[in-house]
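User: Okay, second chain of the day. Same drill as before: sequence in, structure tokens out.
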Amino acid sequence: MHAMACLYTLFDSLEVAKDVARVMLSERLVACANIHAPCHSLYNWQGEEAQSAEIPVLFKVPAEGADGAAARLAELHPYQTPAIVVWAAETTPDYAAWLNAETQG
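Assistant: Same drill. Structure tokens below.
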């Protein structure tokens, strides 16, 4: 198995999720973005309970590109404090080769 990373975040609309995913792909920071169906989020924000419909997105990247991709995602994200969760994962050699090919300039 080969190392890769997954970045998970949420957006307030499908359009914003697609726009950010397209930038991340065009800049070759990620190889893939999976945009999921809306979810209902409940959370505390500035001392108040809040809720909203959000669009989850899962980005896939070679492990060594995770820090740079997460930093750029934070720059592009419209939220003041976006949840950007990064975790290490393992994948097959073929998928790892594809990830590397798609994220190398």
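The chain has a mean pLDDT of 97.

User: Thanks, on to the next one.
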